[in-house]
């Protein structure tokens, strides 16, 4: 079994107003390639801290985090930045698109960070736009798109570097129920193609679309259950 991510006894402490806050307390779990995981929990449970660690936006106080075969706890800031740009696909609640750029240019943004946008890369971005249903919107800019269309751009962007996994932070939080369902169906379809997805959400209905739900409470894993309906992880492709 190939792992997209592996956390081993991960702890994260903060000092706030002179007091030590234990945000994560010995969290351990594995995410096989092709899995679709929801990270859930109440406010203050450690969801955001865990997201930042998985996204290489922060470092643990102790423990080990493996992304693919790379121990990211041993990397310097430059290499962590490279990991964020090249091996993790991000989807945010607020989309985080650049309003001055076209749909196609926004999808290409991770490639610019690596200093490359070849004709072959641009064609791949066109293919990803088609995959998410935006072939007829390539020259539009974010203000000209609906919220659901903007999130589709973000999903295409998250795939451009063939990441270890897609890290989705409340991806339907700004969408109405109909559009949310469309985005969740798109994510489900991507997972069915073998894409690994780790989604942070506080909404039970959203979490129920995934294959597995990890619930946090007070910085610890309270439960880790796989959905009987969807079963084992999809085969990686």
What can be said about this structure in brief?
32% of the residues lie in helices and 29% in strands.
Write the layout of secondary structure elements.
Blueprint: E1 3-16, E2 19-32, E3 36-41, H1 47-54, E4 62-67, E5 70-71, H2 77-87, E6 88-92, H3 103-113, H4 119-131, H5 147-159, E7 165-169, H6 177-192, E8 197-200, H7 204-207, E9 212-217, E10 220-226
Parallel strand pairs: 3-8, 3-9, 6-7, 7-8
Antiparallel strand pairs: 1-2, 1-4, 4-5, 9-10
Helix pairs in contact: 3-4, 3-5, 4-5, 5-6
What does this structure look like?
The chain is an alpha/beta fold. The chain has one domain (3-226): 3-Layer(aba) Sandwich (Rossmann fold). It has seven helices and ten strands. It has a six-stranded mixed β-sheet with strand order 6-7-8-3-9-10, with helices on both faces. The longest helix has 16 residues, at 177-192. The chain is globular and about 50 Å long. The two termini are 13 Å apart.
């Amino acid at each position: 079994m190939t792992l997209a991510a592996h956390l081993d006894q991960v702890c994260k402490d903060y000092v706030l107003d002179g007091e030590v806050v234990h945000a994560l307390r010995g969290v351990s779990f594995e995410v096989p390639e092709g899995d679709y995981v929801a990270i859930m929990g109440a406010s203050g449970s450690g969801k955001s801290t865990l997201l930042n660690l998985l996204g290489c936006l922060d470092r643990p106080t102790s423990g080990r985090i493996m992304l693919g075969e790379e121990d990211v706890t041993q990397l310097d800031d430059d290499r962590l930045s490279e990991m964020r740009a090249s091996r993790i696909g991000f989807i945010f609640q607020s989309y985080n698109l650049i309003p001055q750029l076209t749909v196609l240019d926004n999808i290409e943004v991770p490639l610019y960070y690596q200093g490359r946008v070849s004709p072959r890369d641009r064609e791949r971005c066109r293919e990803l736009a088609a995959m998410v249903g935006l072939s007829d919107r390539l020259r539009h800019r974010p203000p000209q798109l609906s919220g659901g269309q903007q999130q589709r751009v973000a999903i295409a962007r998250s795939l451009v570097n063939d990441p270890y996994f897609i890290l989705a932070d409340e991806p339907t939080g700004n969408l109405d129920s109909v559009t949310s369902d469309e985005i969740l169906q798109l994510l489900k379809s991507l997972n069915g193609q073998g894409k690994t997805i780790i989604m942070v959400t506080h909404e039970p209905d959203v979490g129920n679309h995934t294959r597995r739900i990890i619930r946090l409470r007070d910085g610890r894993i309270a439960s880790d259950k796989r959905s009987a309906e969807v079963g084992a992880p999809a085969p990686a492709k």
